[in-house]
Amino acid sequence: MMRKKKGFAAVLCCVLCCRGIAAVGMRSSAGQEERNLASAAFVQGADAFRAGEWMSAVFMLRRAVSYPENDTADTWYMLIAAEMYAGEYRSAFQDCEHFLAAFPDSPYVSYVSYHKGRALFYLGEYEKAVLLLSDFCHQNPEHEMYASALFWIAESFFAGYNYDEAEMLYALIVRDFPDDAKAPAAQYRIETIAQAGREEKLIYLLKEVGEEYLAAKEEYERQLRFSASESAAEARQRLIDLQRRNSDLERKVAELEAERAALQQQMDDAARRSAGGRNAELLLELKEKAKQTQQLLDKERAGDAK
């Protein structure tokens, strides 16, 4: 009887051992499958990134970081870069915050801080972008992205219509970083601000001259109505003087119109040189001002015709 019990115990022990080995094998197989999936997601994301297929890269890298094996600073930084290229600025901003909290000692921290500030700019948070990018410049004066950070600070000022502050930073980039990739764009912005200033001055002068012209025209017509009460010689002289004054004002209007046409040509030339969408938007605004100038001229010609 004892031998039977010992034999049963030995068999039970053998069965349990086999089951344990099988369970370990299953867990090992499941773990290997998960590692394979994690590796495949990362490889596919990296391939899409290299090919410039940004949305595919975002999708696959987002999937990749969900696996513990890929929850690394390298994968997260690649995901943030892909999101910036894809225009997914809200997601990029959120992932930058996660990165800075999860990997404070990573060598990518400065780059992520830069991308975070740029994401804020594209989200329209101009004041926050200025603060964050200013901190970046203060903390990284020798960084390779320093000039680019200055440029996006200037762009934030420009977008907020603070042209004086923006122009100073654009000039700093052109002067101190002439070989940087942002230098041509900064020089273009300087020229754009100058053109905008000339356009505003032109509109103001045209308005002033137009008002003076209308007043002189009204005076001329008034003198015509009352000329009958004056002597012929006096009336003739007064009309001659008024005609001369009107001729001078018409000449000024013609000169201003020529200047407006020249500015329009400059803006058209600048638009052809420009490859940036934001520069094209600014030129559209300037063209709208030019239309306003033309409307003033048309109004004055209509008044003169009457």
Question: In a nutshell, what does this entry contain?
Answer:
This protein is mainly α and 306 residues long. Helices cover 85% and strands 0% of the residues.
What's the layout of helices and strands?
Blueprint: H1 2-50, H2 54-64, H3 73-86, H4 89-102, H5 109-122, H6 126-139, H7 146-159, H8 163-176, H9 183-226, H10 232-273, H11 277-305
Entry keywords:
85% helix, disordered N terminus, mainly alpha, 306 residues
Uncertain segments of ≥5 residues (pLDDT<50)? 1-27
Mean pLDDT: 79
Net shape: elongated
Regarding quaternary structure, how should these chains be classified? single chain
> Which structural class do you get from the secondary structure elements?
mainly alpha
DSSP strand count: 0
Give the count of helical stretches. Answer: 11
- How much helix, percentage-wise, in residues? over 70%
Largest β sheet strand count, sense and barrel closure: none
Provide an overview of this structure.
It is a single chain. By secondary structure, the chain is mainly α. It has helices at residues 2-50, 54-64, 73-86, 89-102, 109-122, 126-139, 146-159, 163-176, 183-226, 232-273, 277-305. The chain is elongated.
